């Protein structure tokens, strides 16, 4: 299990270790990235992860991580729904590229339905 933890730290950048916002990355595994909540807009990704566009058993799907982080940038917190994009963790090799009902309801709560 790999964490997709996102703190209030806050250009989509892929960065190593300490990158100047007081929330250093932890190397391979663990935290994959983090983003600030609105209206900051910064989103950071740990360069030491095995990122992939088509992840194998020991790789992490960059698309899924970025989609999750965009949720935070828009103001969403973590979901309790294991299938949701906004669930706090993702397994290696798993793609979560489609918003689930819980993700949709979260964003509609923030921004409305029209
Ligand atoms: Zn998160
Ligand atoms: Zn950061």
Automatic annotation (TrEMBL):
Q: Show the taxonomic lineage.
A: Eukaryota, Viridiplantae, Streptophyta, Embryophyta, Tracheophyta
Which GO cellular component does the record give, naming just one?
extracellular matrix
Recorded source organism is Chenopodium quinoa
> Pfam family example for this protein?
Peptidase_M10
Peptidase metallopeptidase domain span: 3-113
**Keyword tags:** Calcium, Hydrolase, Metal-binding, Protease, Zinc
Q: Would the keyword Protease turn up in this protein's UniProt record?
A: yes
Binding of Zn(2+) 2, residues = 68, 72, 78, 86
Cofactor(s) named in the record: Zn(2+); Ca(2+)
Residues that, per the record, bind Ca(2+) 3? 26-27, 46, 49
Q: Locate the residues binding Zn(2+) 1.
A: 19, 21, 34, 44
Cited InterPro entries: MetalloPept_cat_dom_sf, Pept_M10_metallopeptidase, Pept_M10A, Peptidase_Metallo
Q: Which domain of life is it from?
A: Eukaryota
Name the active site residues: 69
Q: How many and how are cofactors bound here?
A: Binds 2 Zn(2+) ions per subunit. Can bind about 5 Ca(2+) ions per subunit.
Q: In the record, which residues are listed under signal peptide?
A: none
Q: Know the name of this protein?
A: Peptidase metallopeptidase domain-containing protein
Any one GO MF annotation of this record: metalloendopeptidase activity
Q: Where does Ca(2+) 1 bind?
A: 49
Q: Name one GO biological process term.
A: extracellular matrix organization
